[in-house]
Amino acid sequence: MTIFAYTRVSKADNETGTTDNQITLIESQLKIDTIYSDVNISGSIAFQKRPEAQKLVNELKPGDTIVIAKLDRGFRDTADCLNTVKWLQQKKVTLKILDIALDVSTPIGEMILTIMASVATFERKRIAERIKDGFSNGRSNGKSYGYKIEAVRQAIALKSSERRQATLERYTTIVNHLKNKIAPGATEAQMLAHLTKVGHPVSRTTLRKALNR
Q: Which residue intervals define the domain Resolvase/invertase-type recombinase catalytic in the entry (predicted)?
């Protein structure tokens, strides 16, 4: 039996494009064998159409377990959530969602999951509506939006520069922690385990980017 962790962040998330906090939460409760992380992927995209989720699905075998830190990290569409859960049940794969701690194999568990998935879907749609309404109200009051505005371009460039710098510093920290592992030719699994042991857990995707693989 293999325990997989699945994490996701979208471009709109306030996590600067990382999933490490989700990994930390998951590993505080379970021992994970493999991690798959979708970065800059919207929750509105069906689970099995996301790049890393597709790789995860292809690895699944009966008796395996998928662990997700929060419901909205896995699903933000009610139909996709329920269809995926049923598909996993048919494959005899267990799904654990830590923030709701439900046994979805029971009728009451499935009912509660349906309600919570509907709330996540509603929240996503309401956020989109509020953004649209905000732009509409702003334009009616003479405000302009878009990349063509100099102030917007400068703000985006500054934020992008800050994120690149933070990312480079983070990758440097990862490589420094692995100096004694890279030279002997340690495997990715060994390096990930070492990073977790020294209190710096990262996803396999982040590790590969740090090592330019």
A: 2-142
Average pLDDT over residues 99-111: 73
> DSSP assignment, residue 141?
T
* Domains in the chain with CATH codes: 3-116 (3.40.50.1390), 147-213 (no CATH)
> Which two three-digit tokens encode residue 184?
């002997």
Confidence of residue 16 (pLDDT cuts 50, 70, 90): very low
Listed in sequence order, the residues at least 6 apart from 164 whose beta carbon sits closer than 8 Å to its beta carbon are none
Q: pLDDT higher for 131 or 11? A: 11
**Cα 114 to chain centroid, rounded:** 21
Q: What is the mean pLDDT of residues 97-113?
A: 75
Q: Are 6 and 192 in contact, with CB atoms under 8 Å apart?
A: no
CB-based burial label for 133 (10 Å; 0-12, 13-18, 19+): exposed
